[in-house]
Amino acid sequence: MQIRTRNLYLIPYLTWILLFVVAPILLIVYYSFFNVDGHFTLGNYQKFFTPVYLKMTLSSFWYALLITGISLLIAYPTAYWLTKTKHKQLWLLLIILPSWINLLLKAYAFLGIFGTYGPTNKLLESLGIGTQQILFTDFSFLFVSVYIFIPFMILPIYNALEEMNHSLLDAANDLGASQWTTFRRIIFPLTLDGVKSGCQAVFIPALSLFMITRLVAGNRVITLGTAIEQHFLVTQDWGMGATIAVFLIIAMAFIMMLTRKRK
Amino acid sequence: MADQTIIRFENVTKQYDQDPAVLNDVSFSIERGRFYTLLGPSGCGKTTILRLIAGFTEPTKGKIYFHGKVINDVPANKRQVNTVFQDYALFPHLNVFENVAFGLRIKGCKNDEINRKVLEALRFVNLVGYENREIKEMSGGQRQRVAIARAIVNEPEVILLDEPLSALDLKLRTEMQYELRELQRRLGITFVFVTHDQEEALAMSDEIFVLNEGNIQQSGTPTDIYDEPINRFVADFIGESNIVPGVMKEDYLVQCAGKNFDCVDGGFNSNEQVEIVIRPEDLQITSPDQGKLRIKVDSQLFRGVHYEICGYDQDGNEWLVHSTKKAKVGEEIGLYFDSEAIHVMRLGETEEEFDKRLEAYSEANHAD
């Protein structure tokens, strides 16, 4: 009886998942078997394994990897420093704050900042370097992506560092470990779960970025995300778009498995 | 004797910012192969001394010597001491073997040497067969042993133990006290043990340092400290005691509770105000006429091994008695004690002055 009432509470969420998670995925799989003219085909999958799409997949992974790597390199020392600082809550708030602002607004802000007549170029000019093409380059794409994703990398690592028992560091030190050895053998292994969650939170969304590639990278960087958007909105080839989406979902599931926490 | 000294503190002060000093001008030395206990209430500076020896913190003033060399600036990882932490601080991502092997791996020992030493250390703490266990699969007492094995495997000259038994239940704690003492004897390594438990200190130590408010109040063997506490704090902290004001009439004669008693202490000024200590177990219950003191029983508790009887004399001094005999609440009883049971404390005497006085009057005794 009790179990039954408890199950009742699940109904709203289950309905939600069914309508907006399960059904869409099934729809995507369904659409991926139809061509532009609405005929059943396996051609989309064949097409995915042609060099054009494979290259696109590779480039997606490459950029996502770069974004994750750079975020990690910046986030780990930041998180470490955060645990040592006095006003933790304030700094944490400042780091989280940008993630509350709409993505589109932030992207537009960077259009201004990096634009030909923007403050960055003004600064470069006054330094005697002269106006540079910053917008629509790999650099601006990576910079903005890292900027957007970095809070998602810092937070889990910060939590992992905070959870760590600090007498372990004394213990390692006591047993003869230098600071670097302590980091390599104690701190990093113990915060690996945080690093994994961070990488998951950055890598997976970075795989399917399309708005930043379009606005900041000017479609010079073509990823799976942009390809899906193009197929659905421009070429109207829903079948092909859905096929790419299927692969993206498979890739995500694979990454989730790879970064699964140890028990 | 001098070459037996491993660690020496010379006027060491530790102060954080503008707060009062945690450790105030402390000097002592630690010799090879003995079991030392730093005993005191929380906040007395005992853990600070341990951290200073380990190298986790540096003294504000003064010098710390290790084999005659100043080690103030030597970082913890370069010191030949190892610590057993209060919460054990075992590495949760490594198994028992790897925890114990940690120090050896850092030193770059060969694999077969590591194998041999780790197994030997585990044998010492009775944990053979547990090498591949994860730390979270071990009980509190077992973790404790792993922590000790992790320290002894490095063959340090000194092992520091920071209240390592405080997280264990009473029975296990008593067991570990025996084991630790035994281990120390077998290894012959110097142990510096920190605790706030006076029974633990008395049971295990060769020498105890009693600390309070950043100062060493008294140091000595457990019997020295128990039988001849230097001041009210030590007398009160080490075991239970009756402390009453008195007047030293002359050497070996003290007045308290309106009566004169023979005692064995000397070297005082005549009519000097003093405090006298009588341990509750040194008081025997007799009839009111036969007792040296007469008290009215106020309360009585059964403690298992003895009754704890509390009463007042006619001057209002409180007397605590440990006796296997039962008394009746409200009854008048007599208390008898030997003259050796009285210990007289001079007010505000330092340990140095105390030792000097003790020497002076025992010499005078021998001359008689």
UniProtKB/TrEMBL annotation, chain A:
<feature type="transmembrane region" description="Helical">
    <location>
        <begin position="12"/>
        <end position="33"/>
    </location>
</feature>
<keyword id="KW-0812">Transmembrane</keyword>
<dbReference type="InterPro" id="IPR000515">
    <property type="entry name" value="MetI-like"/>
</dbReference>
<feature type="transmembrane region" description="Helical">
    <location>
        <begin position="201"/>
        <end position="218"/>
    </location>
</feature>
<feature type="transmembrane region" description="Helical">
    <location>
        <begin position="134"/>
        <end position="158"/>
    </location>
</feature>
<keyword id="KW-0813">Transport</keyword>
<dbReference type="Pfam" id="PF00528">
    <property type="entry name" value="BPD_transp_1"/>
</dbReference>
<dbReference type="GO" id="GO:0055085">
    <property type="term" value="P:transmembrane transport"/>
</dbReference>
<protein>
    <submittedName>
        <fullName>Spermidine/putrescine transport system permease protein</fullName>
    </submittedName>
</protein>
<comment type="similarity">
    <text>Belongs to the binding-protein-dependent transport system permease family. CysTW subfamily.</text>
</comment>
<feature type="domain" description="ABC transmembrane type-1">
    <location>
        <begin position="57"/>
        <end position="259"/>
    </location>
</feature>
<feature type="transmembrane region" description="Helical">
    <location>
        <begin position="90"/>
        <end position="114"/>
    </location>
</feature>
<feature type="transmembrane region" description="Helical">
    <location>
        <begin position="61"/>
        <end position="83"/>
    </location>
</feature>
<feature type="transmembrane region" description="Helical">
    <location>
        <begin position="238"/>
        <end position="258"/>
    </location>
</feature>
<dbReference type="InterPro" id="IPR035906">
    <property type="entry name" value="MetI-like_sf"/>
</dbReference>
<keyword id="KW-1133">Transmembrane helix</keyword>
<dbReference type="GO" id="GO:0005886">
    <property type="term" value="C:plasma membrane"/>
</dbReference>
<keyword id="KW-1003">Cell membrane</keyword>
<keyword id="KW-0472">Membrane</keyword>
From TrEMBL, chain B:
<keyword id="KW-0547">Nucleotide-binding</keyword>
<dbReference type="InterPro" id="IPR008995">
    <property type="entry name" value="Mo/tungstate-bd_C_term_dom"/>
</dbReference>
<dbReference type="GO" id="GO:0016887">
    <property type="term" value="F:ATP hydrolysis activity"/>
</dbReference>
<dbReference type="GO" id="GO:0005524">
    <property type="term" value="F:ATP binding"/>
</dbReference>
<protein>
    <submittedName>
        <fullName>Spermidine/putrescine transport system ATP-binding protein</fullName>
    </submittedName>
</protein>
<keyword id="KW-0472">Membrane</keyword>
<keyword id="KW-1278">Translocase</keyword>
<dbReference type="InterPro" id="IPR017879">
    <property type="entry name" value="PotA_ATP-bd"/>
</dbReference>
<dbReference type="Pfam" id="PF00005">
    <property type="entry name" value="ABC_tran"/>
</dbReference>
<dbReference type="InterPro" id="IPR017871">
    <property type="entry name" value="ABC_transporter-like_CS"/>
</dbReference>
<dbReference type="Pfam" id="PF08402">
    <property type="entry name" value="TOBE_2"/>
</dbReference>
<dbReference type="InterPro" id="IPR013611">
    <property type="entry name" value="Transp-assoc_OB_typ2"/>
</dbReference>
<dbReference type="InterPro" id="IPR003439">
    <property type="entry name" value="ABC_transporter-like_ATP-bd"/>
</dbReference>
<dbReference type="GO" id="GO:0015594">
    <property type="term" value="F:ABC-type putrescine transporter activity"/>
</dbReference>
<dbReference type="GO" id="GO:0043190">
    <property type="term" value="C:ATP-binding cassette (ABC) transporter complex"/>
</dbReference>
<dbReference type="InterPro" id="IPR003593">
    <property type="entry name" value="AAA+_ATPase"/>
</dbReference>
<dbReference type="InterPro" id="IPR027417">
    <property type="entry name" value="P-loop_NTPase"/>
</dbReference>
<feature type="domain" description="ABC transporter">
    <location>
        <begin position="7"/>
        <end position="238"/>
    </location>
</feature>
<dbReference type="InterPro" id="IPR050093">
    <property type="entry name" value="ABC_SmlMolc_Importer"/>
</dbReference>
<keyword id="KW-1003">Cell membrane</keyword>
<keyword id="KW-0813">Transport</keyword>
<keyword id="KW-0067">ATP-binding</keyword>
